[in-house]
Amino acid sequence: MNLSLEWERMADTPVEEYLCTRIRRAEQALMAHHEAVLRTHGLAMTQYTVLLALSREGGMSGAQLARSCGVTQQSMGSVLANMETKGLIRREASPVHAKVQIATLTDDGQVLLDRAYQEVVILERTLTDSFSPADHAALCELLERATAILAQQTRRAGVQSAD
Q1: What pLDDT score was predicted for residue 156?
Q2: H/E element holding 106?
Q3: What is the C-alpha to C-alpha distance for residues 108 and 155, in angstroms, rounded to an integer?
Q4: Helix residue spans in the chain (DSSP H)
C-alpha cells in the first residue's frame, strides 16, 4: 500500500465523515444520555453497570466487576466502597478465598436499579422502534463486525508496540 496515496485520499475526507468519528459520536451521545438519566438517580455509569451486573450474575468479586465494567481494579475498589456506604451493595468474604470480597446487591440497590433501568430502557426501545426489523438486524450485524475489527486491530497494535 502506498501510504502517501492513502494519506492524500484521507486528507480529502472531512474528519467528521470518518467511520471512527461517527462511531465515537454515537458512543458519546449514548453515554451523555445515560449519564444524564442516571444522575437523576444519584448514580454514575460505573455504579449503574455494577448494579446491572450484580442483578444479572449474582455475587461477583471486585476483579470480575472491574472486567465487566471496563475499569481498573483500583477504580472498582473505590466504586464498591462508595456503593457499600450508600447501602446499594454488601460485601462479604468469599467462601473459597478469604481475601476476596464478593459483592451482592441489597434490596435498596435492586430498587434503585429498577427505577433507573425503567428510564434507560426507554432509549433502547426508541432506538429499536426507529428502525425496521431488517434495518435493526443489519445495524446490529454491522456493529458486531465493526467491534470485532476494532478489537482485532487493538490486539494487533499491542503486539506491534511490544516489538
Answers
A1: 85
A2: none
A3: 40
A4: 3-11, 19-39, 45-57, 62-69, 73-85, 107-129, 133-162
